[in-house]
Amino acid sequence: MSHDEILRLHGEALALFGSRVHAVRDDRWDSPTPCSEWSVRDLVNHLTAEQLWVPRLVRDGATLAEVGRDFDGDVLGDDPVAAWDRAAVAAVAAFAERGALGRSVQLSYGSGPAAAYCTQMTADAVVHSWDLSRATGADERLPGHLARAALREVEPYAPGLAASGLFAPAVEAPPGADDQTRLLSLLGRRP
């Protein structure tokens, strides 16, 4: 996949999640999500913190130790929507800088290409858009091309995800399932 395509998909995935964040009603921030340990606020906090890491790792070349615990805890403050917007804009800008996707970044599993990190972040935003939609009663349908891109990203390493303890075990997708259903099933969601 070209760098332009990676950046386009990443921007669309963050815009999709952002549209869901902007639609959260005041009385829904404490609602449960398909991520059993997280409320809506916890889920948005998780994605916001992930975006805050991007400029540090991609633009600044920081190591995990250098970032440390800077983005642990509540990063949303009194205005979760504005916090999300700022973090998303900064992440998109960091990945879009000239040569950024060709850089190497340090991640929890070791050093790797920033382009691969960007596609992982895209898949995460797509899946969590569905989680947020389910939790808030929004339209759960994901754009087909984003579901397909996320599925392509996740399929190769999906069998090992449940063993990490961070993902529910996969559920069997029905025969002939579309990309969205296959993606969600691989990640232990019941569409």
Summarize the structure.
Helices cover 54% and strands 4% of the residues.
Description:
The protein has 191 residues and is mainly α. It has a single domain, classed as Four Helix Bundle (Hemerythrin (Met), subunit A) (Up-down Bundle), CATH 1.20.120.450. It is 54% helix and 4% strand. It is built from seven helices and two strands, in the order ααααββααα. A two-stranded antiparallel ribbon has the order 1-2. The radius of gyration is 16 Å and the shape is globular. The two termini are 28 Å apart. The model has no long low-confidence stretch (mean pLDDT 94).
In total, the number of domains comes to: 1
Using the coordinates shown, work out and report the CATH topology: Four Helix Bundle (Hemerythrin (Met), subunit A)
Helix content: 40-55%
- CATH superfamily placement: dinb family like domain
Task: Strand order, main sheet: write it out.
Answer: 1-2
State the total count of DSSP E strands: 2
CATH architecture group name: Up-down Bundle
How much of the sequence is in beta strands?
under 5%
Elements, N to C (H/E): HHHHEEHHH
Largest sheet: 2 strands, antiparallel
In the CATH hierarchy, what is the class? Answer: Mainly Alpha
Q: pLDDT average, as an integer?
A: 94
Summed up, the helix count is 7
Distance between the termini: 28 Å
Radius of gyration: 16 Å
- Structural class from helices and strands? mainly alpha
Low-confidence stretches: none
Name the overall outline: globular
